[in-house]
Amino acid sequence: MRCAAVSGTRSSAPAGKRKAPGLSTAAVGRVSNVVDLSGELFDTIEVNAARTGNHKRAAVRMSRLAAQATPSSMSRAEAHMRAGEQYLLADDPEAAVAQFRQAIADPGPTSDDPRVPLARAMFALDRAPDADALLRELRESGARTQPRTCDLVAEILTEQGDLRGALDWATAGVDACLRGDDRDELQLLLRLRYRNRVDLGMPEDDYDKMLDNRKAGPAAGT
Fold it and tell me: Per-residue pLDDT for 32 more than 50?
């Protein structure tokens, strides 16, 4: 979980009522000028959205915070990306696209490459050529050296039924893990890769045997 301090609250809380940390009873989007963007605040919004199922409200609040609040321990780019993810959960991919584009345009850092969820949103809008162009851009920009990005792209392609494309990205992710020390991501990629190979009717290979031999690191139970 991303952690950061929250400074300030949203205004207009009813008198005599105690506010939960990071939450407000104010109208959505009314933000006081003392609110800082932080992972803790956005984590709280996400947890509340998961509890209530109201991802649209969370997305609107996040997007307005991204536009109006002061960047602190979290960049505006990250805030826009997380707002876009909530819009996807709310089945509003068009609004999600706008947030992901703002995340790309902002120079701030993000936890994941926003082009990946943007591609997911494009697929949801039946704009496969645009999604494919984004994935080509990711490939050409060297994103396949990042295990997390490879995992996310492989998941998207699996959802789209492109098992060979997903297998290619998952294999690239495994290679990247083996060059580094990300054993948790390695386990996830090996499992995804194995499922795709089984669905494609392919025989076991050396990477599949890493699961059998429990050599994928701590996440595999070694």
Answer: no
pLDDT in tens, 122-158: 999 999 999 999 999 999 999 999 999 999 999 999 9
Count of C-beta atoms within a 10 Å radius of residue 218? 9
CA distance 71 to 76: 6
CA dihedral 44, 72, 37, 51 (to 10 degrees): -10
- DSSP one-letter code for 159: H
Instruction: Name which of 83, 77, 81, 69 is nearest 108 in CA terms.
Output: 77
| Dist. CA 147–CA 176, nearest whole Å | 6
Query: Can you name the residues that pair with 37 across neighbouring β-strands?
Result: 71
Residues 82, 100: Cα–Cα separation, whole Å: 9
Bridge partners, 36 (sequence order):
70
The predicted model scores a pTM of 0.78
Domain ranges of the chain: 1-9+21-117, 142-222
Concatenate the DSSP letters of all residues of 123-136 into one string. Answer: HHTT-HHHHHHHHH
How many residues make up the chain in this entry? Answer: 222
| DSSP-assigned letter for residue 212 | H
Residues ≥6 apart with Cβ < 8 Å to 183: 177, 216, 217, 218, 219, 220
